[in-house]
Give the backbone structure.
Amino acid sequence: MEALVEPVTAWYGHAARDLPWRRPDCTPWGVLVSEVMLQQTPVVRVEPVWREWTARWPRPADLAAAPTSDVLRAWGRLGYPRRALRLADCARALVERHDGQVPADEEHLRALPGVGEYTAAAVRAFAFGRRSVVVDTNVRRVQARAVTGVALPAPSYTAAERALAVSLTPSGDADAARWAAASMELGALVCTARVPRCGVCPVRDRCAWRAAGFPPDEHAARRRTQAWHGTDRQVRGRVMAALRSADGPVPRALLADAGPEAQLDRCLAGLIEDGLAETDEAGRYLLPA
Ligand code: SF4
């Protein structure tokens, strides 16, 4: 397995992007915020929002005290805005349980709102330099191709993949943390989903998928393509954009362009249930205070 780790971490040394949450002066809180934002949103969209967010709320206590409407406005167009609510819940939990600090151990991290296995592992590695097994979609793809020899991993994360990830992770803290960052970066920049750049890949000479002649994806029929146009997600996004940009409560009639009536009703009810919107006494819609 070292055959993979050494060239990928060496490549990372000169190819890594200079991202603000990777700098030595970034706090564990800044790393945690970046990991939550990056879960479903590309780096290019996250970076400006992360900068604004961490300048405005540099410590968990700052975010914990912020009005929900400010938090949702600052989240902007990152998508999946329930993540913003969970980050605010997480900030309050850090204040209540950990004196406003981000803990380094996995058990306490996993107990925080919105922090699952991936985020806890990433924070341990990137904020504290500890050994942890960090597996995101990029790492899964690199493993599947370079080691297993298939085009893409199975639609759901398997025990075999986890075992492989554990076996690939170096034993020392610093080496493991570097491998985590490097393997994610390789998947993000070189071993990309659609058109891998094998010509510049540091493991092209030992890649199992390449050696096998790039056999096609055996799970292609089971993969869902995420349609966007006409979905509830799109309608919810339009409503949230209208509420974020409004100076005050928005009458239902001014949201009519967001989608067909029945779908709009469903989406408005869902946003209220998720804590992302409220109605006032006149039945107008607004962000929660
Ligand atoms: S050689 Fe190509 S397919 Fe194999 S790991 Fe590198 S970029 Fe991915």
Remarks:
- Residues 82-98 form the longest helix (17 residues).
- Strands lie at 278-279, 285-286.
- Residues 137-222 form a domain with the Endonuclease Iii, domain 2 fold (CATH 1.10.1670.10).
